[in-house]
Amino acid sequence: MISTQEIILRLLAAVAFAGVVGLQRYLVGKSAGMRTHILVSLGSALFMLICGYAFRTSPTNTDRIAAQIVTGIGFIGGGAILKERGSIRGLTTAAGLWAAAALGMAAGAGLYTIGLIGTIMILLTLAVLRLVERRLPRHTWGAWVVEITTSRRASIGELSVS
In the chain, how many domains are there? Predict the structure, then answer.
């Protein structure tokens, strides 16, 4: 069994890792901000701690809990994805929540270095690549609808382009 101080440290690490990611999302005006990211990470860390230390389970069982966290967060992320007027929004938010769960799992398992490096890489992905994407040209494909009105009823065969 691990000490209470180690449990607190792991939970605080989960809050810190996801908190900075959530802060970045909040600052750019996304709906899933600090609280959402922290709750996802903290919940994942709690699951990792519970499955690793509360029950006398085999490593196989702890692997199953970790796999279920990934599945459960996929469900939450699916709720963050919206389709509006032919475009899809919320994919980055869903991916961020999934990544926050991974940060919580790392913290809950006591893998602080992985959690810290993961946090830095997530922040770089969200912040730096956002700036890069803004500078790149974006090509969108669209459909054109052409409506032709003639003075008399003409068939398609009678119309010609000059």
Answer: 1
Range of the domain at 90: 4-156
Whole-number Å distance between alpha carbons of 92 and 95: 5
Question: Could you tell me how many helices (H) and strands (E) the chain has, helices first?
Answer: 5, 2
> pLDDT tens-digit profile of 52-110?
777 666 655 677 777 888 888 877 777 777 766 767 778 888 888 999 999 999 999 89
Mean pLDDT score, 39-55: 86
Q: Element (H or E) spanning 103, and its range?
A: helix 91-108
The SS3 call for residue 91 is: helix
Q: What angle do CA 39, 100, 23 make, to 5 degrees?
A: 75
